[in-house]
Amino acid sequence: MEEQLSTFLRTQEALIANMIKQQQDSLTAQMKQLEQTLQDRIDDHHIANDTPATTAYSAQPAAEHAHGRQKMKMKLEYDHSNPALFPAFDSQLEAKLRIDGPVIGTEVEQVWFGFGCLKGIASARVHPWVKAFQNDVTRFTKVNFFNQMRRAFADPEAQNKAL
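The chain above was modelled as a monomer; its predicted structure follows.
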């Protein structure tokens, strides 16, 4: 009788341990899914720890922004390690801001988004312009940002080469 009870208890212990393991695996999977959902939402709304808050001098209040989903879900980065890639990056960023600009936010927020796509040397090269004009909404514009990037990175002979 004692042996049967001992066997029964070991079996129950194994069943309980198995159920706990299944629950842990299920919770781990749910956490991963929640983390991915959160990351997708962060990506969709371009909220990142290194993105400065710009609504303080934004031309349009944050509450009025369009909060739809972005249509262009490409990762845009440019580091100037290969200058031949700049024209494509320039066009892709311009398209991204034209198509998803209202979702990203105000023009100031779109400039911050564009600057956030620059990495390494590219970011360092444009950073002085950002620091100089970040508080001046009349100068901190997409047109001026693209002009600054093109002065910094574009091949001055590109038009001649295209002909």
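Residues 46-162 form one domain.
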